[in-house]
Amino acid sequence: PSVPRHTNRLINEKSPYLLQHAHNPVDWYPWGQEAFDKAKTENKLIFLSVGYSTCHWCHVMEEESFKSKEIGEIMNEHFVCIKVDREERPDVDKVYMTFVQATSGGGGWPMSVWLTPDLKPFAGGTYFPPEDGVHRVGFRTVLLRIAEQWKENKDALLESSQRILEALRQTSEIRVQGQESPPPAKEVMDTCFQQLSRSYDEDYGGFSKSPKFPTPVNLNFLFTYWALHRTTPEGARALQMALHTLKMMARGGIHDHIGQGFHRYSTDQRWHVPHFEKMLYDQGQLAAMYSRAFQISGDEFFADVVRDILLYVLRDLSDQAGGFYSAEDADSYPTTASREKREGAFCVWAAKELRALLPDPVEGATEGTTLGDVFMHHYGVEEAGNVDPLKDPYQELKGKNVLIARCPPELTAAQFGLEPGQLSALLQECQQRLSSARAQRPRPHLDTKMLAAWNGLMISGFAQAGAALAEQGYVSRAAQAAAFLRTHLFDPDSGRLLRSCYQGKHNSVEQSAVPIQGFLEDYVFVIQALFDLYEASLEQGWLEWALHLQHMQDKLFWDPKGFAYFSTEADDPSLLLRLKDDQDGAEPTPNSIAVTNLLRAACYSGHMDWVEKAGKILAAFSERLQKVPITLPEMVRATAVFHHTLKQVVVCGDPQGEDTKEMLHCVRSVFSPNKVLMVADGDSAGFLYRQLPFLASLERKDGKATAYICSNFTCSLPVTSVQELRGMLSP
After folding, report:
1. What pLDDT, in 10s, does the model give residues 584-608?
2. Which terminus of the chain is more exposed, N or C, with fewer CB under 10 A?
């Protein structure tokens, strides 16, 4: 490779996204005091650019503008330019995205914001083309106009930025109003169900026409709604909506049929043509959703999808030390000789290519049938490509096919005169061949940053899958990742989580010179993961760590006046707003998960003030939950759990005994959204017995493993029959 012409300060950073921009002619600074001081000393405006390493339009804007010497000179002359990886610093991203959404009506990445030297925003947007077009002002023009305004109307700009900040402060505040209490569960649940039902796509599943996102929060809500209304038509519809959506996604092009795992979202209604990046947080949440679908339905189809997702993560997103990487890019070079990356190049196929790779005649099929014929029919492959040109504006996928299972396996088998079992073996053979062929292509960029929050979501995915599918290997992988977090993303001296660490040279794990402290989302997703891991492994050490982190979360983020948790700590002067997220999106908002975490923590510790805290969060969000519950489906779900009171399912017995294992398998195989599981093994010196003295009074009946269903530490009569226990676990 040629020696780079330019190198800026980002070369000293660890984030893969920041390093991607280290050789731009732009004099980039990372977010920090050096840049802030320079802006004040030189009385310059700040240009803030926020993105992430697998963001397609971030790459486009870099190619067009940030690699341009001429545009770089304008930026360097008039602005102090700061680059932020939104995955490293979600706090910075959230403050300025709140501004961009409020002033432009939309948002997204790359985010481009202009700030005064004291960090107050006054202009912003997302992607800008380099030059003026018919419908859009170009980036160069915007830069020059803003520089001119600063020169001519500095006072007006400063005044305007102050007004904007005050308005944002008022509109973004979430706090309890007067004596408000948690909203009633029934009304909030019913309204949320009706709102989701109205937006549901009866044909293809999902909750919009296009683009279409997986939205695990919606599916999780629907499973809980079904569990609490399973004898009603509404309950049946909720379950049908969730299972149909998961089936259509798994058959669609959003699911990588050759390389496993799920892409970020579908650009069309049919889940066919995806945006090809793969994110860790999607894999973690979807593994959990498909595990629940399997628990509820018993359909092996869903268990196979769980195994598929976890195979992808084990193979492609796992660090040797035990952590999980953040993402894989959408763009890659079509061949080793290509000079330009294309979206989806790693994943798509020309019909001619498939025929060449799968020429073998198929025994027992209609005469003349090849493997290629069967595979191409099943996955909707067309000679001229199967991508709608309207979904491919830059013609990157012209003549290519995105695989989508167009029809059930039984129909494909019938089409070629095959037995269903025979078809399954043939498709598997085809997939292995194509996987080997694909391995010869240049791989997309891998973001090897490891984030506490997203690792938490993935640990939950492995732990829940291990419990639901009775796969001990998945539980062990979850435990390995949790041990990784404790080693690399936890500071034992302060007792606090860290946000991120990075793959270093020779497979080492590195930390930034100044580590980024954990945010609220890191705490809630890691605490949730540790509870899930305890229930799957029964290792009490994970429980102990979870309760420690819950105390630390309360100390760092709780709002004693307005209730609920702030997303960030109080002591960062560079953050102009201390916000509380108010929408469940690609990931649930942290306060939504915090409610359930607090209820679980109370069950495992006996600290009932945590139940009170959970109620206070719901009270703070009460107005939003009652008016637009569809924006917070995970918190609506938590409202139901709060009002129904969690069941403590206590199994008394030797964890290694067959009778205990049978009872545990029963508890784990039933989907029950309002239970926590614990084992009373008779070790009165153990952590759980010290936390919960009532466990000492529970005994095995007739020397057999015995279950008790407890509520607020008051227990049912003992149960020794698995069938009886199964009946009692229904909400």
Report:
1. 999 999 999 999 999 999 999 999 9
2. N
Angstrom distance (rounded) from CA 724 to CA 731: 14
- In angstroms, the CA 410 to CA 656 distance is 42
- Both structure tokens of 696: 């000492």
Q: Are 94 and 579 in contact (CB under 8 A)?
A: yes
CATH architecture of the domain with residue range 9-172: 3-Layer(aba) Sandwich (3.40)
| Per-residue pLDDT tens over the stretch 667-707 | 999 999 999 999 999 888 899 999 999 999 999 999 999 99
**Where do the H-state alpha helices sit in 470-539?**
472-488, 520-537
Pairing of strands 45-51, 28-30: unpaired
Q: Report domain extents, the chain.
A: 9-172, 204-312+340-445, 645-730
Q: Alpha-carbon distance 333 to 442, whole Å?
A: 6
What does the angle CA 346 – CA 349 – CA 354 come to, to the nearest 5 degrees?
130
Residue 47: name the closest of 135, 137, 110 by CA: 110
CB atoms closer than 10 angstroms to residue 306: 27
Secondary element (H or E) of residue 162: helix 154-171
pTM of the predicted model, to two decimals?
Answer: 0.97
- The residues facing 680 across adjacent strands are 652
pLDDT digits (tens, 9 = 90+) for 168-196: 999 899 999 877 899 999 999 999 999 99
Question: Per the omega criterion (within 30 degrees of 0), is the bond before 211 cis?
Answer: yes
Q: Is 650:708 a contact under the CB 8 Å cutoff?
A: yes
Could you tell me which of 469, 572, 576, 581 has the C-alpha nearest to residue 525? 581
**Topology (CATH level 3) of domain 645-730:** Glutaredoxin (3.40.30)
CA–CA distance, 622 with 605 (Å, rounded to integer): 27
pLDDT category of residue 469 using cuts at 50, 70 and 90: very high
